[in-house]
Amino acid sequence: MQSKRIASSIAARALLATIVAILFSMGVSGYAMYTAYERSTFEEAQGRLRSNINMMLSAVLARSSALDMPQNLPEPRLSTPGSGLYAFIENGARQVVWNSRSAILGKIDKVPTPPDIGQQVFSSAPEILLTGDDKPRKLYVMGITILWDYGENVVEPYTFWAMEEYSIYQKKLDAFLQRLLFWLGVGAIALLAVQVTLWWWVYRPLKRLAKEIHAVEKGSQLLLSDKHPLELSPIVDNLNTLLDFQQRRITRSRNTLQDLAHSLKTPLAVLRNTVSSNPSIEQLSTTVNNEIERMNQTVSYQLQKAATAGQSALLAPLLIKPLVDKIINTLKKVYADKNLEYRVDIEAKLALRADEGDMYELLGNILDNASKWSKSIVSISVSTNDKLIRFNIEDDGSGISDENKKIVLDRGTRADQTVPGHGVGMAIVKDIIEEGYGGMLYLYDSSLGGAKIVIDLPNKYH
Fold first, then answer.
1. Order of strands across the sheet that contains 451-458
2. Strand, coil or helix: what is 313?
3. Which of 219, 267, 374, 404 is within CB 3.0–4.6 Å of 415 for a Cys-Cys bond?
4. Contacts of residue 216, Cβ cutoff 8 Å, sequence gap at least 6
């Protein structure tokens, strides 16, 4: 159940994060669109007011020393009181010399300072207070100052003002905002519906994976199935590797205990029968020593077999050459009297996903045997390809006969009884190679004159 809760929690958090991201992106997009529309509305107001001023400039007439504006202007709103569009003309003393009919019923306050001659000004500061209206109305205003030449060195500055109520554009902005919010809401709901559907579709494999993990937790399933999307394959493969690795360790430990218990029955029975037959001291001593040696071999073999980790993708790559160098440095001290020459041909970066203890036991046993039998030379080389890593260990000793090649890998058997040892080293090596790593061990005659041992280990996780 824990795995299901984890999968549900992950999916819920991912969905919540997606919803927040969608809402945030919608908000940012909506703000950007509204700002752009507001800017375009502002520019529209400037353009319309400038057009009205140009219309006024083209329509105005000069009579003696005053300006005269026709009664009917091309823009009808200027002739309609309270229409929202207003215009007037100021002289250099800031006296109104003309105003449009639309502004007759109102008083305009806070008019901006006239711009310099030939320049224009645009502002949203002025307000107009219409008769019978208690609230001032905000205006957009544009003004342009010109010099009017009446002739005979009579020149007067005039400022042409055009004004339009801000509420006209505010209504446009409000309408746009309502439409924008409506369609953003529709889009957000649609996107959320699509996202929920997508997350449901994505969550199904996670739910199935959580269900299988729960089955593994209950013990009703050993490994995860391969019926999962490609994106989950690395997770499934790693979990299966971990489960298989753990299962092999448990099985190996259980079998080792069973084998150990079974193997100890015989020597214990021999000791029991010997004691019950009232043997002599010499006979009892001999029997006890032999059976103790036998039990020692059995225990050493089974414990080492149980301790084998085996190959797994979970293990870190192990550099082979430093490990071999370490073993050889130890053997040089053990066999210092033989003054052996160790020839090593291993690439410095060559690595294998293996347990260091396993490899130390494996290579240590073989190199130790090679050092025992060799006269002067021990050689080790390693080669690799996409499928396997091959170890070649050779010596220039007396070699192993064809008859002994068949029995040397059996537990408790030694090719030469005159050399100290328990006779379990090569059997342990064989178990590590075959059971722990799925490899193969071969015995050949070496070109150096002694034995040649070849080890092939799968290179699964390179």
1. 341-345, 377-384, 388-395, 451-458, 440-445
2. coil
3. 404
4. 222, 223, 224, 243
Full DSSP string of 397-457: SS---HHHHHHTTSTT--S-TTS-S-S-HHHHHHHIIIIIT--EEEEEE-TTSSEEEEEEE
- Residue pair 89/62 in contact (Cβ under 8 Å)? The answer is no
- The contacts of residue 314 (CB under 8 Å, 6+ apart) are 238, 241, 242, 245
The closest alpha carbon to 455, from 401, 383, 385, belongs to 383
* SS3 (DSSP) at 201: helix
What are the pLDDT digits (tens) for 213-265? 777 666 677 776 777 666 666 776 667 666 666 666 666 666 666 656 655 66
Over the range 140-179, which residues count as b (16 or more CB within 10 Å of their CB) and which as e? Answer: bbbbbbbeeeeeeeeebebbbbbbbbbeebeeebeebeee
Contact 320, 428 (CB under 8 A): no
Cα–Cα distances in Å, from 80 out to 87, 105, 126, 221? 12, 10, 20, 88
Residues of 393-431 as b/e, b for ≥16 C-beta within 10 angstroms? Answer: bbbbbebbeeeebeebeebeebbeeeeeebbbbbbbbbb
Q: Which residue ranges make up each domain of the chain?
A: 1-221, 231-307, 317-458
Q: How far apart are CA 426 and CA 409, in angstroms?
A: 5
Cα 357 to Cα 349: distance, rounded to the nearest angstrom: 19
- Give CA–CA dist 440/458, Å, rounded: 9
Query: CA-to-CA distance for 413 and 184, rounded, in angstroms?
Result: 84
DSSP character for 362?
A: H
Of 294-308, 336-350, 435-449, give the lowest mean pLDDT range. 294-308
CA 115 to chain CA centroid, nearest Å: 61
CA 335 to chain centre: 53
**Burial class of residue 298, CB neighbours in 10 A (0-12, 13-18, 19+):** buried
Three-state DSSP state, 341? strand
pLDDT of 416 higher than 50 = no
Work out the end-to-end distance of the chain between its first and last CA atoms, rounded to an integer number of angstroms: 35
Q: How far apart are CA 434 and CA 310, in angstroms?
A: 10
For domain 317-458, the CATH architecture is 2-Layer Sandwich (3.30)
| Mean pLDDT over the full length of the chain | 77
Residue 143 and residue 160 in contact, taking contact as beta carbons nearer than 8 Å: yes
Residue type, 376: S
Identify the CA nearest to 195 among candidates 79, 55, 23, 345: 23
